[in-house]
Amino acid sequence: MPFWPTGLVGPPWEFSLALAYLLLVLAGQGVPVLLAYRMPRLPEAGAGDQGSLPSLSVILPARNEEDAIGACLDSLAAQDYRSSGGSLEVIVVDGGSSDRTRELALAHPIGATVLDEPPLPDGWVGKNWACHQGYQRSRGEYLLFLDSDLVLAPPVLRRAVDQARAERTCLLSLASRIVMRGFWERVVMPLFTQFVLVYFVAPRANVDTSHRAMANGQFMLFTRGGYESVGGHAAIRGTILEDVRLAQRVKGQGQRLRVYWTPDWVTTRMYADRKEMREGLLKNLHGTRFSAWRQLGLASLVALFFLSPFALLAAALVGALPAIWGIFSAALVAITALKQVAFQKTLEGRGSGAFGLLYPLGALFYLGLFASSLARGLGGREVTWKGRPYPLDRGVGEEAPTPEPPGPGKR
N or C: less crowded end of the chain, CB within 10 Å? Predict the structure, then answer.
């Protein structure tokens, strides 16, 4: 090929390889955009007249949540559920908090029932145990398992129950807008949102014929009968990602699951600081069923889609690769930066989205988490959350829904 610009693009096979790389990374960056666009939102209008509202029990597991539980209870007190004719009870299950969580819950004018969580039995994850205790004391026809760091707009409970009844769901879950305040939250959490969208192919959870299943454990609304039919939290007592496992059980029984994104109605600050964020994300990435191959595979994808363009651009600049690699890589860096800025603005709901430009730091943060997960898993070390250690084999104990495990275990 006498007119082929070899110095610029290399031989034809290398240009084809560079072009394939460009298209692969572009596709990888486009997938979360497409999934976010397709993610349904809870309808702002009511779902039609469903008759009188059913009784609703809101169950809040809480462990050392003094900085958040007050705002959550305030938002529950402001709900229009009772004024619309519904019966509402709030149950706070305190998991041995060492701060003022229990005191604040007892003093709040909403009049919540505050339970002291019994000692954590062997084989149970703390949150699952707390939710199970709240369920046993509840009376509602619907059960809402709610994290105590959520803040809800006044119509959320009524709209969610109306939608659940209209859709005849066993489980309806709402995804919140994440409030990001610290530097590392703004750098890391937008990537977390994209990883969740892609890993679970989130919009497919709403397709009844799809096997895809996920839920947001911060807001899970069940019919009592549906919750009991899947075994409740007792059936997945040793699973850290309890929301996903419950959603899988719902889908596995052929029951209806719905997940909606509600950025204007439900907000949360998931982690109070960088240390808690690292521990929480590591817990989610690692789980109790460790797989080195899965962690290596996910880490490789993060490196490919978010960091490899920088490495190839540098190699092209020093002449180690033909210039076409640098051109394509620079284009990928720019396109990814624009996408991240757009995600940042969407998630924060304000500001310029400039923190999206720091996405390489977020990717490196995640590679550090994967490395830590590998080290823990290969060394047989347990995962820790809220001061409680969970051995790696706990995730296997979820076959039988045991109503009350015998004997107290260690906290």
Answer: N
